[in-house]
Design goal:
The protein is of the alpha+beta class and about 190 residues long. The protein has 4 helices and 5 strands. It folds into 2 domains: about 150 residues, 3-Layer(aba) Sandwich (Aminopeptidase), CATH 3.40.630.30; about 30 residues, no CATH class. Strands 1-2-3-4-5 form a 5-stranded mixed β-sheet, sandwiched between helices.
Amino acid sequence: MKQTIVRRAMREELARVNALREEVSALHAAGRPDIFRADFCEALREHVYEKFDSADADVIVALCGGTVAGFAIVEYIVRPASPYNRARRYYHIEEIGVDAAFRRRGVGRALTDFFRAEAERLGFDRMELDVWEFNADALAFYDAVGFTCYRRFLELPVASCARSRVECDPEPHAAAENPHKTARCD
């Protein structure tokens, strides 16, 4: 098996990163079509370039034989104290994905090892990410590399259209006063 090299991405690799992000986006759209849109629009494509150029984020790639086999977008989060929370600093894995052809070959673990070393080097005491409940493979992987759950988001659909594929979203900013009253499912 070829060695996996993990490092910060180069700008010319971002198109390949977007191809992998599109695969992850399709997985999300299939898993929760009531939440995620099926199209990988231009705004999503631009997101990786914005993060690449940000001082508070990085785009990481895992290379196998010169091919970008995996990626991550990571953020360096610093939250001040508030009346509810203590000040926090953490290494946030905003997005991560491994090409299906390279899964179960150590690419995800190599990325995680890189994150851990970088988080420690930068003085963060923790790494955080979120994962969708339908993504059983990701949940099993995160468990295997040592992530633990510390918070859960729960839902209870209340509208008859809550799980339908009917587009219920109003256009952004279409109802300036109260968009919740204009989102309809009929």
